[in-house]
Amino acid sequence: MIDLAILCEAVGCHGRVARVVVADSKGSAPREKGASMLVWEDGADGSIGGGRLEFQAMARAVDMLRNGPVSDIRRQPLGPALGQCCGGSVTLVTEIWDQAHFRKASVAVSAAEGNVFARRIEGPAEMPGRIARRVSAVSGQTQDATVELMDGWLLEPTGSRSRPVFIYGAGHVGGALARILGPLPEIEVTVADMRAQLACGLPDNVQPVFDSQPQAVMASAPADAAHFIVTHEHELDLELCHLVLGRPFSFAGLIGSATKWARFRKRLRSLGHSEAEIDRIECPIGITGFGKHPQAIAIGAAARFMHGGRRPFGYGAVE
After folding, report:
1. pLDDT digits (tens, 9 = 90+) for 205-221
2. How far is Cα 90 from Cα 106, in angstroms, rounded to an integer?
């Protein structure tokens, strides 16, 4: 997925950037189709898979920034010649982006119907008929839209970070969780806390909300949001649990012990919630076998969330 907002920010900061995307992947490869990174003269963001492949891709991108061309397709076996032993192969597309290119792309995306951005990387300037038909077939169908390289044309779904995650509490665990989840693609993290001093140190890609009560932040969250309740006050935790059970959500987790959760369950029942409703909140949160250090709790909570809300085999709750 190409995120034009992030690309716009990078172009604004660095003037010219190279975007490298995995357009195709066969066999064993370090990253999946669609993985991308941005490269500029003295830095980079994102990853297409570490090691020699990424090192060479970055070097090639910098050379293109200095000397051209403005687009390039490289098909790379991941074998001994590269100093890697994955055994598969990848096709990398590198494009140089500046303000003029971005404006042209923005106009094209705005004019297009659907959610697929198609552009020529090499070959004929006029879009072949089969490319137009493919764009039409997958536009608006998120489940079918994927990165495709056809006849020198690159097709990518457009969009931005789409999985909203709300963390209530910016203390040790909440801050650690924000730093783990924030950099992940297609996740948009919001941290809510009234202690403004805790905003310092949060990643730039995390949205801090320190001027509103967490309850108000939760009330404005979209229906598909994930909620991590990790505040420093049990009464606030309970109130947020009560509020989240009165609204739709994709995932909800509460920090605390099994003893805390037993007490909360009793109080939530008294507030009118059924056992089935209460069971939708996970407590203790995440994979608890990692230990009780805040960073370990955050790692367990993030792993649980990334695993789709299913507790991986072999880990149980710690009393």
Report:
1. 899 999 899 999 999 99
2. 28
Q: Nearest CA to 174 among 146, 154, 205, 202?
A: 202
242-246 CB contacts, 8 Å cutoff, 24+ apart: 242/268, 242/271, 242/273, 243/215, 243/218, 243/219, 244/218, 244/281, 245/273, 245/277, 245/278, 245/280, 245/281
What does the DSSP 8-state code read for residue 206? E
Maximal CA-CA distance, the chain: 70
CA-based nearest residue to 201, from 178, 217, 181: 178
User: Do 233 and 242 meet the contact criterion of CB atoms below 8 Å apart?
Assistant: no
- According to DSSP, residue 2 is labeled B
What letter does residue 142 receive in the DSSP assignment? T
pLDDT at 309: 55
Q: Quote the CATH superfamily of domain 163-306.
A: NAD(P)-binding Rossmann-like Domain (3.40.50.720)
Look at residue 247 and tell me whether its pLDDT is greater than 50: yes
Pick the closest to residue 304 from 279, 319, 283, 318 (CA basis). 283
CA 174 – CA 180 distance, rounded (Å): 10
CA dihedral 245, 251, 256, 261 (to 10 degrees): 40
Q: Give the per-residue pLDDT at 106.
A: 83
Which residues of the chain does CATH 3.40.50.720 include? 163-306
Q: How confident is the model at residue 315 (pLDDT cuts 50, 70, 90)?
A: very low
Residue 70 has pLDDT above 90, yes or no: yes
- Which amino acid appears at position 94 of this protein? T
Return the bridge partners of 164, or none.
188
d(Cα 276, Cα 200) in Å, to the nearest integer?
A: 39
More confident residue, 66 or 81: 66
pTM (two decimals): 0.68
